Every structure is written in structure tokens, then in C-alpha cells.
Amino acid sequence: MSELTDNDITHLRRAIDLAGHALALGDRPFGAVVVDGDGTVLAEGVNAVNTTGDVTTHAELVAITLATAAGHAEDLRGATVYASGEPCPMCAAAMVWAQVGRIVFAAAAAEFGPIVPGGPSFALTCADLVATSNVPVQVSGPHLGEEALAVFRAAAKA
User: Fold this and answer.
1) 3-state DSSP call for residue 44?
2) What's the pLDDT tens digit per position in 1-39?
3) Which distant-in-sequence residues (6+ apart) come within 8 Å of 52 by Cβ?
4) 19: closest CA among 11, 66, 103, 133?
């Protein structure tokens, strides 16, 4: 696990804030922020599965889709995606296809899964999936410990 910069922590905390926003809207508590190599935020996303009825509207995919729609498809190459929770295999694969350079997540699926059950789960971690590709993507997480899990605990109480 690599050491985080102050900017990494800021973006991870923003992803966690977005997860709280998703929860307030009635969705599962996941948020994501996409930042290019220059530190510019390209897009943010929240889980919208319940509100849209579309099972592919995970926070990371929403953020990637919004960045692409805003004309930033090329800027995704080498970008960093910050996620409040460890990306699932669908999201991790999409990030490989987008050729992001880094995936940084706050809470591990093994930690938040038991707190907020109900969705499918996988034994394959984000890092495991990314490692099977031919795209060099760094995966870093989990980070921020209890702070990262707080939004999931709030979801369990809701």
C-alpha cells in the first residue's frame, strides 16, 4: 500500500462525502472522484442504482461516464479514481478499459460488506482483477480506517 499525499486524502474524503450524499438520496453509500494528472477534478459520481433502476450506475462508472461526456475521455488515461469503497469487478474493469493510472479507495469490500449486506459480493478484489490485465494500474487501499467505514455504518442504521 503506497503512502498517501495530502491531495489524495482530500479527494478520498470528498469521495466519502459523496457516498453520504448517495445515501441521503436513497442509494447505497458509494462516491467517486476522478482527477487528472494535473490535479484537476474531471468528474464526481455517486451510486444511483436505486434512484435510476440501472444496476450499472455505480459511483465509479457514473464519474467515468460524466468525464467522458464532458470531453475528457483522453484525460482519463493516467488519471486517478478515488472511491469511498473498494471498486467491484465491474468498476475495476471499466477503469482498466479507461486506462486510468491509479485507483485509490477508502474502505475495503471485506470490511464494508458485512456492515451493508444485500448486494452481490465477490471474492476477487479490485487489485486482483486489475493485476489480470495488461494495463499498468496502481491500486492503493484501504485507507482512512474508521473514517472510511462511517458512511457504511450510517447506511446500516438507515
Assistant:
1) strand
2) 468 999 999 999 999 999 999 999 999 999 999 999 999
3) none
4) 11
CA atoms within 13 A on the CB side of 78: 7
Beta-bridge mates of residue 140:
104
Please enumerate in sequence order all residues whose Cβ is within 8 A of that of 31, keeping only pairs 6 or more positions apart, or say none: 14, 15, 16, 17, 18, 19, 20, 21, 22, 44, 45, 46, 47, 59, 83, 84
* 60 catalytic residue (yes or no): yes
Looking at residue 137, its pLDDT comes to 97
The active-site residue out of 60, 86, 146, 147 is 60
Q: Which helix (H) or strand (E) holds 82?
A: strand 80-85
Ramachandran class of 47: left when φ > 0, alpha when ψ lies in -120 to 50, beta otherwise:
beta
C-alpha cell at 37: 494528472
